[in-house]
Amino acid sequence: MPSHSNSTRPEILAPAGNADMLCAAVFAGADAVYLGLQNFNARRTAGNFTTEGLRQAVAFCHARDVRVYVTLNTTLYPGELTALAEAVAGIAAAGADAVITQDLAVAAIVRRMAPGLALHGSTQMSVQSLDGARRLAALGFTRVILARELTLSEIAGITAGCGIETETFVHGALCMSVSGQCYMSAFLGGRSGNRGGCAGPCRLPFDASGTPGPAAGHHLSLKDMSVIGHLPQLSAAGVASVKIEGRLRPPEYVAAAVNACLLARAGEPYDTRLLQDVFSRSGFTDSYLTGARNGSMFGTRTEGDAAAAKAAAPRLRELYRRERPRVGVGLELTLEEDGAKLAVRDADGNRAVVYGERQPQPGQKPPEEARAAYRRSLEKMGGTPFFPQEVAVRGAQWFLPGSEVNELRRRALESLLAKREQPRPIPCAKVPQALLEAPARAAKQEGYAVRLAHAAQLPRETPQDAAWFIMPLAQWRDVPPELRSRTWLEAPRALFGGAEEASARAAFESRDAGFAGYVAENIAQFTTLEGLPLAGGFGLNVTNPLSAKEYAALGARMLTLSPELTLEDMARISAPVPVLALAYGHMPLMLTRACPLQNVRDCGGCDRKGELLDRKGMRFPVRCSGPAGARTVYNPIPIYMGDRLKELPVELPLLYFTIETAARVREVLALVREGLPFDGPFTRGLYYKGTN
């Protein structure tokens, strides 16, 4: 039989940033662990694992009935696909249970090289809706890791209808931004969160009241989430796996969180105070799961929090000092005049047999009494991953000293463990070279694309050199009929609060109104808008030619490249469809469901816009789509390449207007049309320097 921990749902999934954390997670009782290699994982500053270290980790875990999921969950840049294929080969050789990924290029390579290796859709894919999960199912994923921002009812709805497993976070740090949609660390510090190098700028002072100085608030810093107490509801909703965040935390942290999850899953109380002491930011929040999103979600790490963690650590080490038994075994001791033999077996068909070195002697006790004594000796398996399920003793009329029985048991279990640690590689082929070859570039287009946030920004005189306009799907009725054949309708990046249903309804109503097509900003829209002309927005994070090919195969007729790419990287991305890149725009640094403005005002009297003042005196605009929707934090300094359009190695530049007035839109269009320098502060973004 499988282990008693693995037979219970939901699976408890623990972080393993290094070998010490791995051991703590397994010994504490986790059903599965997730870990990263040195490259291509979203916690680049964790200890992580080499290919050999991964092989050893998988052997250690599989011997104990613990599953191992490997994170390949960063965006991939041109020139990295060959190294990625080598990583996939190493993961398959180690026999890991699944790969966690956000980039369709990774999924394509895994499917072609090692189809027996399961695919889990990373939370960086920003799956917030049923159609997003259904799209992953259609692409061959077996599990989707849902966005942290979802409510219990939203999770239940997706789980019931998507046809694949769902995984949700239940404990650990909360990013302010929707995962995969944060560009703040990249643009403000040159360290990309999408590449595993986030510097955590949201933990710095950003004040929604506009208060400068030492008293400034931390209104982008969320408390850690902890919804472990809701495990019974998540289990009832059908969630397959509950995930603990924290590959950068110490072993004591993971042991405490795993222990709390085990107790909660069993319906028993757990020590919430101890869990808070090991790590918190002024407490925990469950506001996303319960839907009670407000200013109480925000918090910072205090000196008191750090002191509590230091005091709690020694007590927590007891949680993983000895491992929990989780692998059931059957034992059969046979005593004969010529010698003793002990055979052990597990439910997977592994068997080990050892022989005694001492010859049994005629027993002095009644056989039943002797048999009971032998059983007690054989059942002592403490300090091993095994527990006895069946114990048989034959020849109890013969006597063997307890020390000899103990030695037989020790040797037999060691031999069985060694057999269980043998690698079980997944068949893996070489990556087809054709998969890595970039297609010929699409034809260059004249002019530029103009994206507007609302119809009021439309210039009175339509710029004739605009090849395309892009407008929000929800505002399709406001687009003048004469512009519709040149206008793509942009679906939202955030799909909370019924946005997916609203998008589907708007697409249905507008489909015969003469528009050029629709822009997908989330992978869900390749399901919601399937069958309609589609383009891909920058929310898809296209960063390499293979992912571009994959989205083109899904139906995208144009693609906007990630703004984190350098011009050199862009030049290496050829696609079968035209690609766009931002030539102007206040970069949307964060997409959030929690509202930073709620730290200083209520939703009732809010005009849905505000500012965040940082410690350097910069004011970051915030715009809100409504209480159930999302908020966007914009860079106050726009990207500008209007005087260097020829340096953009793409088929079409994109002018991305967001917070500008109609007058300002006209001014910027005039600058771009004439190729003039910008008339105020601006940035070239990451186009010439890239990220670390």
Question: What are the salient characteristics of this protein?
Answer:
alpha/beta, disordered N terminus, eight-stranded parallel barrel, elongated, 20 helices, 692 residues, eight-stranded parallel beta barrel
How would you explain this protein's 3D organization?
- By secondary structure, the protein is of the alpha/beta class.
- Helix content is 28%, strand content 21%.
- The protein has an eight-stranded parallel beta barrel with strand order 1-2-3-4-5-6-7-10, surrounded by six helices.
- Helix 5 (130-138) packs parallel to helix 6 (152-161).
- It is elongated, with a radius of gyration of 29 Å.
Integer-rounded radius of gyration: 29 Å
N-to-C span: 48 Å
Helix share of residues? 25-40%
The poorly predicted ranges are 1-7
Q: What is the percentage of strand-forming residues?
A: 15-25%
Structural class: alpha/beta
The counted number of beta strands is 30
Q: What coarse outline follows from CA principal-axis ratios?
A: elongated
The mean pLDDT is: 93
The biggest beta sheet is recorded as: 8 strands, parallel, barrel
Strand order of the largest sheet: 1-2-3-4-5-6-7-10
Number of helices: 20
Topology readout:
Blueprint (H helix, E strand, L loop, with lengths): L10 E5 L3 H10 L3 E5 L14 H12 L4 E6 L8 H14 L3 E4 L2 H10 L4 E4 L8 H9 L4 E3 L6 H10 L3 E8 L11 H6 L16 E2 L16 E3 L4 H6 L4 E4 L6 H15 L6 H7 L5 E2 L1 H4 L12 H14 L10 E10 L2 E8 L4 E5 L5 E2 L4 H12 L7 E9 L3 E2 L2 H19 L12 H4 L11 E4 L14 E7 L14 E4 L8 H12 L6 E4 L4 H4 L5 E3 L8 H9 L2 E5 L6 H5 L7 E7 L2 E5 L16 E6 L4 E6 L6 E4 L4 E2 L11 E5 L5 H13 L18
Parallel strand pairs: 1-2, 1-10, 2-3, 3-4, 4-5, 5-6, 6-7, 7-10, 9-11, 12-16, 18-19, 18-30, 19-20, 20-21, 21-22, 22-23, 23-24, 24-30
Antiparallel strand pairs: 7-9, 8-26, 12-13, 13-14, 15-17, 24-29, 25-28, 26-27, 27-28
Helix pairs in contact: 1-9, 2-3, 3-4, 4-18, 5-6, 9-10, 10-12
